[in-house]
Amino acid sequence: MTAITGTDRFLLDASIWVGAMEPETPFHGPCRALAVHSAYSVAALDLTMIEVANVLGVRYGRRDDAIDVCRLMIGRCRRLTMSADPGLVPWVLDFAREHRLSAYDASYVAAAEREGLTLVSLDIKDLVSKGLAVTPDAAV
């Protein structure tokens, strides 16, 4: 990852959107800033909405919060960076194999790489520690 500048655009994974809603989450303040403030140019994957719905709506039983975050995501992201795109699949598979990632995590990495975005995540073990993403405090 290169140094972050004020003109960077960020791809936020599901952990950032959920972290913005959870005050006890590490980096809650920077997560919230990225998710809410228009000073940051952000993107998301369509996959992210499903992941947010799963965590907030299914796991935590907070259906209304899940819907609110998905609406926020649509409002904040001028476009969803990746929807069902068969052209991205080879990249996903290559990143998954090379970095020992799930296809889900590799989807974020591949989309960020293809679109020239900085991936922001709370996944220290699989993404940040491998230099594939930055933590939210590094982005704000």
Describe the structure.
The chain has 140 residues and is of the alpha/beta class. It has a domain at 9-84 and 116-134. It is built from 8 helices and 4 strands. It has a 4-stranded parallel sheet with strand order 3-2-1-4, sandwiched between helices. Helix 3 packs antiparallel against helix 4 (63-76). The chain is globular. Mean pLDDT is 91; it is low at 1-6.
Q: Poorly predicted ranges (pLDDT <50, ≥5 residues)?
A: 1-6
Total DSSP E strands = 4
Describe the strand arrangement of the main beta sheet, using strand numbers: 3-2-1-4
Q: In percent terms, what proportion of residues is strand?
A: 5-15%
Could you state the oligomeric state of the chains shown? Answer: single chain
Order of helices and strands: EHHEHHEHHEHH
Mean pLDDT: 91
Distance between the termini: 15 Å
- Whole-angstrom Rg: 14 Å
Condensed summary:
It contains eight helices and four strands, in the order E-H-H-E-H-H-E-H-H-E-H-H.
Task: Please outline the helices and strands.
Blueprint lengths: L8 E4 L1 H6 L8 H9 L4 E5 H14 L3 H14 L3 E3 L6 H11 L3 H13 L2 E3 L3 H5 L7 H4 L1
Parallel strand pairs: 1-2, 1-4, 2-3
